[in-house]
């Protein structure tokens, strides 16, 4: 906490929250509090924060939309930077520029409003633009990098940088921004003119498909595990074949309607969710030899769980 107080004093002109409940900022609706949550309002404030933390040699955790995140019940000790206030979206011809804190859904809605096609497959994907770029979000056999023209970011020293997908580093649910210290600040989407009725119809079809699969029924993080194509089957099918649908750990449950979704049935803890993730992973490995890789990011102080 002493380090938190020192940092808060040095950035007293930027909004901060101490003991910020993280369950209010994650789609799992679990987890403890962050000692310090920093909410820069614009690029200048973000750069000032990053440079200060670099000078102090302080690690930090970057919070996106909280959609692929499991925060420890013991919370997060290092400063947490949320870009939720940096959420501006602008449209220029067939390009949409969205700040990292903008929701993916808001980008899709802006595209529809301008009769631009290309991001329909992302509609109702939870989370922020920055998080989706960092994870190279993928759905319906397409990845977000396919519709990006340019990504604006800070390097670990707080220096502004630009990169295009053609520069490399993108792969299946991978991006060059998964390196520690880089912070995506905005993304430029390259779209095309389209028929607004057709665009909306595809968006609604994708929304209905997500509803049918149960993505919105309970607090969850969507798919828990990446697919390992060497096994020729998606992770959800491997979990189903291992007979794990409906398996519970306290208030956490493998969704009865989808093997690769773990839900918070109401009062789950992050520890229960993580234990269930590990149980599913180990049982599938024992059954077929596939050690599935979690998509979800484990954030915060897990020492008590790990020991």
Describe the structure.
Helices cover 28% and strands 24% of the residues. The protein is globular. The protein starts with a helix and ends with a helix. The model has no long low-confidence stretch (mean pLDDT 93). The chain is an alpha+beta fold.
**Strand elements, count:** 19
Question: Mean of the pLDDT scores?
Answer: 93
Class by alpha and beta content: alpha+beta
Q: Rough shape?
A: globular
How large is the count of helical segments? 8
Strand content: 15-25%
Largest sheet: 5 strands, antiparallel
**Alpha carbon gap, first and last residue:** 23 Å
Low-confidence runs of at least 5 consecutive residues: none
Strand order of the largest sheet: 6-7-13-11-12
Order of helices and strands: HEEHEEEEEHEHEEEEEEHEHEEEHEH
Rg, Cα atoms, Å: 20 Å
Helix content: 25-40%
Secondary-structure blueprint:
Elements: H1 2-10, E1 16-21, E2 33-38, H2 43-55, E3 61-63, E4 69-71, E5 80-82, E6 89-92, E7 95-99, H3 104-113, E8 116-117, H4 129-135, E9 138-139, E10 142-143, E11 148-154, E12 160-163, E13 183-190, E14 192-193, H5 196-213, E15 220-223, H6 235-241, E16 248-249, E17 252-254, E18 261-264, H7 270-288, E19 297-299, H8 303-306
Parallel strand pairs: 2-5, 3-5, 4-19
Antiparallel strand pairs: 1-2, 6-7, 7-13, 8-14, 9-10, 11-12, 11-13, 15-18, 16-17, 17-18
Task: Label this structure with key terms.
307 residues; alpha+beta; 5-stranded antiparallel beta sheet; 8 helices; 19 strands; globular
